Amino acid sequence: MTAAAVGADSDSGPAETDPTDPTDPAGPGDTDPAGDPLAAYVADLTAALHGPARAKDRMIEEIRGGLEDTADAHIERGVPRYEAIGAAVREFGTVAELVPSCQEELTVAQARYTARVVALTAPFLIACRYLTGVTAQEPAGSVLSTARLLAAHLSGVAIAATLLAAAALAATGTLSRRPSPPARLPVVVAWTGTTAGASMAVTTLALATAAALATNWPLLACAGALAAASHAVVATSARACRRCARLPVLGAPEPG
Amino acid sequence: MKADAVRGHLDGLLLAVLEPGPLHGYAIIAAVQQRSGGVLELRTGTIYPALNRLERTGLLSSSWQSAGERRRRCYELTDEGRRTLAGERTAWNEFTAAIGSVLNPTPPHGLAT
């Protein structure tokens, strides 16, 4: 963007060229056999970032559009296309320079997604407590009584998970006046989701067992299927959140 | 001015250039560079996650707009964003006034030189 950056393009001599480096201003020119360096940059960035697909796609599309706009501005000033892309990439920063700040936002997006999933599905565990409570009134319900006891404990987990998820959403949304959420928040959300997911798996087993013994088994079987589906969604999101929480982000404390 | 020094003020810079009206990413970058006379060293790619963050916290709103074959996301200040910008300006003016009065003290009137 700066005059110095653009000017540096024409100052570079051919002896310093690197045909594989899209940021090299004296690269192979418009007939680059290696393909489109801008596409390669975007592909590298796409591979390096992790987060919810929609948020990631949006960020990548915006960055790609910004790079194209920047390169176009140089081309309008008479800079050859390959050199213009090299200048645009230098102004944007290398992939390694961009990833921490982009990943920080995607990690928050993943934490918010996981928190939303937990907040929406965990209350289902509370409904299961009511369901097993009703069926446990049936005769010969010792196993069902066990299921009811289990459901009572799991509903406690569900309440805690829902409250934590709601707090995480509040801390990262419009109610938050902090520019960045607490650094440990994604980890907390990830393990909240993992706990909720595990509770849903146990609920699925409890409901399946109860359904085999109860007279009104279709209701319990349906609830078990829903619990299994909830487990799949929550566990997948929690796993993605754990992965994002492990990635380095801007401003994160140095390891060790 | 080095990129590290600029980073702490990035949010205020972005809010300020969006004050006149909506802009897309490249226009925001160009506005920051133009207003600073090219003095600010900024890895311009980092403004995109910053814009996402400001939108998430309710200081900006955005929408996709098509320009030919290219789609661009345009950002504009929300009411909360305008209030935050006013606060940033006040804080910055107080800060620069305090630092300035220390670095460039005005000699008291009547003091012999």
Put the structure in a nutshell.
The complex is a heterodimer of chains A (256) and B (113). Chain A is an all-alpha fold and 256 residues long.
Q: From N to C, what is the helix and strand string of chain A?
A: HHHHHHHHH
Q: What strand order characterises the main sheet of chain B?
A: 1-3-2
The helix content of chain A, as a percent range, equals: over 70%
- Put simply, the count of helices of chain B is 5
Distance between the termini of chain A: 38 Å
Shape of chain A: elongated
The gyration radius over C-alpha positions of chain A equals: 26 Å
What's the CATH architecture of chain B? Answer: Orthogonal Bundle
Distance between the termini of chain B: 36 Å
Low-confidence stretches of chain B: none
- Average of the residue pLDDT scores of chain A: 78
Characterize the main sheet of chain B.
3 strands, antiparallel
Q: Please report the number of helical segments of chain A.
A: 9
Q: What can you see in these coordinates?
A:
- The complex is a heterodimer of chains A (256) and B (113).
- Chain A is mostly helical and 256 residues long.
- Chain A folds into two domains: 19-93, no CATH class; 108-246.
- Helix content of chain A is 73%, strand content 0%.
- Chain A has helices spanning 3-11, 37-48, 53-76, 81-92, 95-121, 123-135, 142-172, 185-213, 217-246.
- In chain A, helix 5 packs across helix 7 (142-172), helix 5 packs parallel to helix 8 (185-213) and helix 6 (123-135) runs antiparallel to helix 7.
- The model of chain A is unreliable at 1-33 (pLDDT under 50).
- Chain B is of the alpha+beta class and 113 residues long.
- Chain B has a single domain (3-90), classed as Winged helix-like DNA-binding domain superfamily/Winged helix DNA-binding domain (Arc Repressor Mutant, subunit A, Orthogonal Bundle).
- Helices cover 53% and strands 16% of the residues of chain B.
- Chain B contains five helices and three strands.
- Chain B has helices at residues 3-7, 10-17, 25-36, 47-56, 79-103, and strands at 23-24, 60-67, 70-77.
- Chain B has a three-stranded antiparallel beta sheet.
- The longest helix of chain B has 25 residues, at 79-103.
- Classes of the chains: A mainly alpha (256), B alpha+beta (113).
